[in-house]
UniProtKB/TrEMBL annotation, chain A:
Family: Belongs to the ABC transporter superfamily.
InterPro entries, alphabetized: AAA+_ATPase, ABC_AA/LPS_Transport, ABC_transporter-like_ATP-bd, ABC_transporter-like_CS, BCA_ABC_TP_C, P-loop_NTPase
Keyword annotations of the record: Amino-acid transport, ATP-binding, Nucleotide-binding, Transport
Organism: Marinobacter algicola DG893
Domain of life the protein comes from: Bacteria
The protein's name in its UniProt record: Leucine/isoleucine/valine transporter ATP-binding subunit
GO cellular component: plasma membrane
PANTHER family: CONSERVED COMPONENT OF ABC TRANSPORTER FOR NATURAL AMINO ACIDS-RELATED, HIGH-AFFINITY BRANCHED-CHAIN AMINO ACID TRANSPORT ATP-BINDING PROTEIN LIVG
GO annotation (BP), single: L-valine import across plasma membrane
From TrEMBL, chain B:
PANTHER family: BRANCHED-CHAIN AMINO ACID TRANSPORT SYSTEM PERMEASE PROTEIN LIVH, HIGH-AFFINITY BRANCHED-CHAIN AMINO ACID TRANSPORT SYSTEM PERMEASE PROTEIN LIVH
Species of the source: Marinobacter algicola DG893
This protein's name: Branched-chain amino acid ABC-type transport system, permease component
Topology versus the membrane: Multi-pass membrane protein
Ranges that cross the membrane: 20-38, 45-65, 71-90, 102-121, 152-174, 203-226
Gene Ontology MF terms: L-isoleucine transmembrane transporter activity; L-leucine transmembrane transporter activity; L-phenylalanine transmembrane transporter activity; L-valine transmembrane transporter activity
GO terms for cellular component: plasma membrane
Residue stretches in coiled coil: none
Keywords: Amino-acid transport, Cell inner membrane, Cell membrane, Membrane, Transmembrane, Transmembrane helix, Transport
Domain of life: Bacteria
Entry annotated with the keyword Glycoprotein: no
Family to which this protein belongs: Belongs to the binding-protein-dependent transport system permease family. LivHM subfamily.
Amino acid sequence: MLEVQNLSMRFGGLLAVDQVSLDVREHEIVAIIGPNGAGKTTVFNCMSGFYKPTGGKILFKGGEIQGKPDYKISRLGLVRTFQHVRLFSRMTVVENLLVAQHRHLNTNLLSGILNTPNYREKEQKSLDRAAYWLDRVGLTDMANREAGNLAYGQQRRLEIARCMVTEPKLLMLDEPAAGLNPAETKDLNQLIISLKEDYNVSVVLIEHDMSLVMDISDRINVINQGRPLASGTPDEIRRNDDVIKAYLGEA
Amino acid sequence: MQDLLYFIQQLINGLTIGSTYALIAIGYTMVYGIIGMINFAHGEIYMIGAYTALIAITGLAALGIAWLPLILIVALVCAMIVSSSMGWAVERVAYRPVRGKHRLIPLISAIGMSIFLQNYVHLAQGSRNIGFPALIEGGFRFGAEDSFQTSITYMQITIFATTLVCMTILSLFISRSRIGRACRAVSQDLGMANLLGIDTNRIISATFVIGAALAAVAGLLLGMYYGSIDPLFGFIAGLKAFTAAVLGGIGSIPGAMLGGLILGVAESMTSGYLSGEYKDVVSFGLLILILLFKPTGLLGKPEVEKI
């Protein structure tokens, strides 16, 4: 579904990402791990169109997407979250989910002013979808609160719900468990698995929480100092000497 | 008793002017809220609204139409259409190409646009004052015959009522409609809104169009209220409305409404109790004070980054 081939990203004299390749198949959770500063988020930024890579190719559903503007990539069904929460914090929880469906509504101004049946039907549909996802991430009671007033873990879940109402094919999560307590991480764990199982979404995630990564990933890519170090199933990665060295330092 | 009547008179005058400031200020505050720039050509959009209304009124008079509601509605619709198109075109031509560049660049582009539009109207319509027919005359008077009488004219009532209707529609539009929702999202995080598939260019255009339409309403109302217009008509009104927007908290729509009313009342109180010469001193003095002591304005919220 997604294929990254020999991706390189150079900032002036710094080669932040060097010849990284990875692929994501349908119905799969792939993790990108590596020490701090390894270039994981840079890879993400290239994939989501935030940066224009200086080398390599990124194919999504067969089409090249490297260098395309981020909003075009997201319209193809490749949506991401950021390391820090980026909700519309002064809008209510349900409004956050409605506004994300703006494009899908595809109605014009006039039908809104006249409140035509067609407009109302579409509004109702997006409201239903919002309600469904609120229930799914356990935020129904918070629907009319301002998003900025939610607890951090709830904001994280709302972000995922907001991605999901756009009906993505591939979800990219940048450190989804950062700042969550163990109970919240466990909830998140189940949520991500269910995205794959029940909604047929592939997930790429960057994560430092190893228990989460090992639990849910189908495959793991390890990056160190911008270069690919290893890739394989969680078991293979756990036994890989290079990975152990990179994480623990050479003795 | 007489003092009270005098005070009430100043209050009525102030609220009248203030509500038109508020109408113009909406345009400044919405544009600032969404793309963080001051649209200095907004005063000119308002002036063009007034001219268009006058042309429409003159045209209808030439056709021999004398039914007042029809004249007002046609003038209003014409002014709104022309101003909105201008607002849209100004953004498209002068601001969109320089969006995302250094902050000063759109600002200078806006000042250039303002000078251009002003001079265009100078050339097209002449630089002298043109009389604006009052159309709505008469009013109520309160107080004894032989002493000071408070008066409230039908024109003033029209201004209040129109402003109230416009503000109500705007508030409902922003809080309820799909595009209003998208406007709020874009103003909070343009990049994210873009990522979520909102056509941010269209939303930005919509903001300019809405602001310009409200300015056109103010143009018609103030043209009738003052009785004459000239190509510089938009300049001071624009500055005042900008002050109102900053006073209320730029970026905040209720702030612009409140700021307009406060500024209008402050001005009329100064003219009534001190001297008309001082009213601009007071309004721009207020601007300086607010910038010194509460730069985010009365209703503006300071941005707090949560980490």
